Amino acid sequence: MAKIDPQAAQEIIGRAYSLGYENEQKYGCCPQCVLAAIQDVLGVVDDATFKASHGLAAGGGLSTGGTCGALAGGMLALSAKCGRDRAHFGNGRFIQSYELGKRLHDRFVAEFGSPICAEVQTRLLGRPFNMWDAQDFKAFEQAGGHRDKCTRVAGTVAAWTAEMLIELAEEAPR
Fold first, then answer.
1. Which region among 40-49, 92-101, 134-143 has the lowest average model confidence (pLDDT)?
2. Which residues does 92 contact at the CB level (< 8 Å), separation at least 6?
3. CB-based contacts of 12: which residues, under 8 Å, 6+ apart?
4. How many other β-carbons are positioned within 10 Å of the β-carbon of residue 98?
5. What's the rounded Cα separation, in Å, for the pair 15 and 38?
6. Alpha carbons 24 and 138: distance in angstroms, whole number
7. Residue 12, burial from CB neighbour count under 10 angstroms (0-12, 13-18, 19+)
8. Running DSSP on this structure, what letter comes out for residue 148?
9. In whole angstroms, what is the distance from residue 14 CA to residue 11 CA?
10. Lowest mean pLDDT among 49-58, 82-91, 103-112, 125-134
11. DSSP state of 60
12. Are residues 105 and 91 in contact, defined by beta-carbon separation less than 8 angstroms?
């Protein structure tokens, strides 16, 4: 990715937020919403990564028990850019990917209180929801899950991820 001027960078970050937010409103599946936004604004993510992220939604398998899918999507986008590929599987840890993932994680926790989907739901919606129970999912929707709560999470992570990827373009390769 080529170096991006500051004004263009701000426009890209803003667009990533809007797309992440809108994608979550329209389509759900938080990791894919973040990845689609990054694909659309920076082109870093391929379709195989997008597809592979599907099962990570709502804490993994809609369980709400694991990492927020939006956060997982952001980490996948960062790793798609600077993670270890198969050709280098036995050649070290590729620490930059870990550092970026940790930085995104820590920023997420500072903003949303936890990386765990159910805990983020509790913070934003007052309680966790069983995404597999039709009545509870309806309550999630009525509480604003896909109107303005999880949408904000997806938009925020998409913007932060775009910002980090732009910063990577500014750095010398490591």
1. 92-101
2. 84
3. 4, 41, 42, 162, 166
4. 15
5. 9
6. 16
7. buried
8. I
9. 5
10. 82-91
11. T
12. no
Sequence spans of domains, the chain:
6-170
* Residue burial 63-90, b: 16+ Cβ < 10 Å; e: rest: ebebbbbbbbbbbbbbbbbbbbeeeeee
Residue whose entry in the numeric block shows the structure tokens 């803003």: 14
Please report, as a single letter, which amino acid is at residue 77.
A
Least Cα distance to 68 among 134, 3, 160 occurs for 160
Segment 118-150, tens digit of pLDDT: 999 999 999 999 999 999 999 999 999 999 999
pLDDT of 173 > 80? The answer is no
Which structure tokens are listed for 41?
């604004």
- CA distances to 130, 132, 172 from 64, rounded to whole Å, are 8, 10, 38
Instruction: Flag whether the pTM goes above 0.85.
Output: yes
User: Do 168 and 43 contact (CB within 8 A), yes or no?
Assistant: no
116 forms beta bridges with 67
Structure token pair of residue 32: 């894919």
DSSP element (H, E) containing 112 = helix 95-112
